[in-house]
Amino acid sequence: MPHSPYSDALHRQDGSIATVLHDVARAHRILELEGHGDMSMGHLSYRDPHGRGLWLKQGNLGLEEVTGEDFILIDFDGNVLEGQGLRHLEWPLHSEIMLARPEVNVVGHSHPFHSTIFGATDAELGPYVNHAVWFAHHGVPRFTETSHIITTQPLGTAVARTLGPAEAVLLANHGVAFVGRNVKEATLSGIFLEKAAKAQLALAASGLGHAPPSAAETIEKHEVIYPERAKDNYWMYFNRKLDALEGRAGSGALRGYEGA
């Protein structure tokens, strides 16, 4: 695994940060497995526990290439405080969501195929499959002010406003953003959004009649199928899946792997 010139500083400063960034790096690679890869585009961030800003994946790396040493620390105005490497242009998407949502500690942005196609429609994501039930309380809003990348703080603020209290937002003709209180929740939000969008697109293409369950039933179902122990179970499952593939590849990251 490559050694970063600032990895030692990370550990000296707060070993817990390095531990979390190890998991955030794994989340990138898991998301690649689950259809979120798009060349070197896509990134997750982690709120710095000392209030300095956020740790953002370096640019010019595919999701499958990210290790725990591939992050830079930026403040909420985008100034690089620690680390080396390219700062992603869309850093304001992360910073403004974190400023608007104090409980959110992990933000992701990617271009998963089915969610991006679904986001280009005017359809509402419905609870047609269990994965969509993850979003029962707030749904998945769609940001339509621009199809451009989110490179300014005002645009980041607008995305955060559209996201509101939800777990994810569709960025029309662009991609998605998803959030969580921790790495586990953010990763599951990204995975379940792509699975739900894929299922609804297939349902629409079938031409068969369909209707969603009621909102009340969907919320009750959410409480039954997504308690904390289930979230832990799914997070561990995706980690085992990653370990199995990386073990077969003989690599610490999925370099060269093409996601499904």
Question: Your description of this structure?
Answer:
The protein has 260 residues and is α+β, with helices and mostly antiparallel strands. The chain has a single domain (7-249), classed as Class II aldolase/adducin N-terminal domain (L-fuculose-1-phosphate Aldolase). Helices cover 44% and strands 13% of the residues. It contains nine helices and eight strands. The chain has helices at residues 7-13, 15-33, 91-100, 113-119, 130-133, 153-163, 183-206, 215-225, 228-249; strands spanning 43-47, 54-57, 71-74, 80-82, 106-110, 142-143, 168-171, 175-180. It has an eight-stranded mixed beta sheet, with helices on both faces. A hairpin with a 5-residue loop joins strand 3 (71-74) and strand 4 (80-82). Helix 2 crosses helix 9, helix 4 packs across helix 7 (183-206) and helix 7 (183-206) packs across helix 9 (228-249). The two termini are 24 Å apart. Mean pLDDT is 91; it is low at 1-8 and 251-260.
Structure, briefly:
The protein is of the alpha+beta class.
List keywords for this structure.
disordered N terminus; L-fuculose-1-phosphate Aldolase; Aldolase_II/adducin_N_sf; 8-stranded mixed β-sheet; 8 strands; about 15% strand; alpha+beta; about 45% helix; single chain; globular; Aldolase_II/adducin_N; metal-binding; Aldolase_class_II_sugar_metab; about 260 residues; disordered C terminus
Largest sheet: 8 strands, mixed
Determine the CATH superfamily.
Class II aldolase/adducin N-terminal domain
Whole-number radius of gyration? Answer: 18 Å
Count structural domains.
Answer: 1
Q: Number of DSSP helices?
A: 9
